[in-house]
Structure prediction request, 442 residues.
Amino acid sequence: MSQSAIDLPSRLLLNLKPWRNAATWRIAFSGGLDSTVLLHLLAHPATTESLPALSAIHVHHGLQAVADAWPEHCRAVCAALGVPLQIVRVQVQPGASLERAARDARYHAFTEVTRPDDVLLTAQHRDDQAETLLFRLLRGAGVRGLSGMPRQRPLGKGHLLRPLLDVTRAELEAYASEHGLSWIEDPSNLDRQYSRNYLRHQVFPALTRRWPQAVATMARSAAHLTEAQGLLEELADMDLREASSVGEFAWLGLRSLELASLAQLSDARQRNALSHWLEPLTRLPDTDHWSGWEDLRDASGDACPVWRLADGELHRAGGRIWWLSGRWLRTLPVAGTWQDTRSPLVIPDNGMLSLTGQIPDGPLQIRYREGGEVMALPGRGHRDLKRLLNENAVPSFVRGRLPLLYKDGQLLAVANLNGLDGGAIGNWHLHWQPLNEDQGLS
Prediction:
């Protein structure tokens, strides 16, 4: 038995040492070589050492007829090792990249099953890391992409961990051979129309013939870039703290940043900070689409620019940039009549209203701004609602969502705006609690 194969179990347990207190170690088990070795490496110590509960999950994509036999193979392997197995069938959405669609479906399944204090273990190794680095380099990735696959990251309510990133494919093959393991050979792995397969079967053999240490040095480069990305994230945190002052309309519950703080940074630091801020909210734009940020930033003061991204929009208003997604971008249905004003009113797709103080007599109606509204104010006469909203510096994207309270066709109050919320004409106030992203908007 080779030294590398002897050393592999202890190396793996050393990599997993910080995670010994997890509730569960769940192995992403495709049935292929890599995950078969990972499962076998952990199944034996799980019977002799105090480790987290060990289980496996197999995601069945149903993309090939031959794959229908794989769940049964995985079931047999897990039964022989005494490891519980969960089989999840997923529907892969059609798209330009079948590889990406299958990966998205697989990781969605992983996210769904990962509970608090669970760790999902995947079997990517050092050769995979080198392939990822080269693949992303050819696509023009930046530091974040070229840092490769992270050793760990949040997943669902738990974490994803890749404990074999310092292990080579050759070491895994040697271990499998020496222990007589059997595994699934996915025929699609030989199809060189897929970019990763082309790199694996055509490019890397040529590279390693010329530079035998290519895989190791590329993985080392990915580690250096991971460190660089960490520094960029620290810088982004510093810049975002400066731009994260609480604004006048914080009650909207929306994510926003102070534009002036960002604008004084260099262009590169602006992109770095915004990328860090946007990363959990949307798929990030590629290099060509960052001109949308410059257009939003540099628009004239009276403009209401919008930068449309994959999963939402950035708006500029009141000296701030605002992230809008979900129901904030949908057309509102008609609000209607408020029958029992003593109880809060849930407004379709727009949060909740309540009245405090000496509640005015009904019947009352809730409407939204259409243009041309006029409001009577004590001591000021009749005023155009548009001018009143301008005086209060209400962001443009809020104006069509602000609930307006009417009685007998007369505009009585505009929710949440001091002096317009009912207090000026009576001893009562109209309160609006908008929906926010924590309530399902993102």
About this structure: Residues 3-228 form a domain with the Rossmann fold fold (CATH 3.40.50.620). Confidence is low (pLDDT under 50) at residues 1-5, 438-442.
